[in-house]
Design goal:
24% of the residues lie in helices and 30% in strands. The chain is of the alpha/beta class. The longest helix has 18 residues. Bound molecules: 1-O-pyrophosphono-5-O-phosphono-alpha-D-ribofuranose.
Length: 178
C-alpha cells in the first residue's frame, strides 16, 4: 500500500500523542458522568478504539454506520444510515467520535437526529478536520486540522482500502482519479 501514498502527514507516534491528550481532556470534562461514546463506522473505528483506552472514566460504547461517500472521493451530500445505533439515546450524554469532518453534513445531520431522539447532550470529537466545511459545526474536540487533500489510513479509506495503514497519508491522485 505504501507505494500508493504520496506522503505521510501524521505518523503513528504523533497520532498516539494527540489521542492521549484528547482522552485526558474528555476524562476531565465528563468526570462525574458516564458518557455514551458513539463510533461512526466505519472510518472512526481505529481512532475510537484508541481513544476509549485513553479515557479513564466509565464510558458506554455505541456503534452506528453512516455513509455519504460510498465509492467516491467526494461527499454525495446524502447521508445513509447503513446500520442503526440500536441504543436508546434518551437522557444520554453523548460524544460522537468521528474520523474526519469534510463538508460537515454527516455530523450536523446525526447530531440533530440524536437531539431529536432525546439525548441530554451531544458533543462531537473528530480526529481530523478539513477546511472545506459547507456548514458551521459545533466542534468540541479536534485532533488535527488538515489541508483539503484526500487522506487515507488509520481508519480512513478509499473504496474500502487503506483503512489498516497505521499512519495517515495523502493518496496519490492517480489512484482515485482512475
Ligand atoms: C466519511 C467520514 C465521515 C464523513 C465526513 O465517511 O468517515 O463520516 O465521510 O464527511 P462530511 O463532513 O463531508 O459529511 P464515509 O461516507 O466515507 O464512510 P466510512 O466512514 O465508512 O468510510
Amino acid at each position: 500500500m505504501r507505494q500508493d501514498i504520496e506522503r505521510i502527514i501524521l505518523e503513528p507516534e504523533r497520532i498516539a500523542q494527540r489521542v492521549m491528550a484528547l482522552g485526558k481532556e474528555i476524562s476531565e470534562d465528563y468526570k462525574n458522568k458516564a458518557p455514551l461514546l458513539i463510533c461512526i463506522l466505519r472510518g472512526a473505528v481505529i481512532f475510537y478504539s484508541d481513544l476509549c483506552r485513553a479515557i479513564n472514566i466509565p464510558v458506554k460504547m455505541g456503534f452506528v454506520s453512516l455513509s455519504s461517500y460510498g465509492e467516491n472521493s467526494e461527499s454525495s451530500g446524502l447521508i445513509k444510515i447503513r446500520q442503526p445505533l440500536g441504543w436508546d439515546p434518551i437522557n444520554e450524554d453523548i460524544i460522537i467520535i468521528e474520523d474526519i469532518i469534510d463538508t460537515g453534513l454527516t455530523m450536523n445531520m446525526y447530531r440533530q437526529l440524536l437531539l431529536e431522539q432525546g439525548a441530554r447532550s451531544v458533543k462531537i470529537c473528530t480526529l481530523l478536520k478539513k477546511p472545506s466545511q459547507k456548514q458551521e459545526i459545533a466542534l468540541t474536540y479536534k485532533g488535527f486540522d488538515i489541508e483539503n487533500e484526500f487522506v487515507v489510513g488509520y481508519g480512513l479509506d478509499f473504496a474500502e482500502r487503506y483503512r489498516n495503514l497505521p499512519y495517515i497519508g495523502v493518496l496519490k491522485k492517480e489512484i482515485y482519479a482512475k
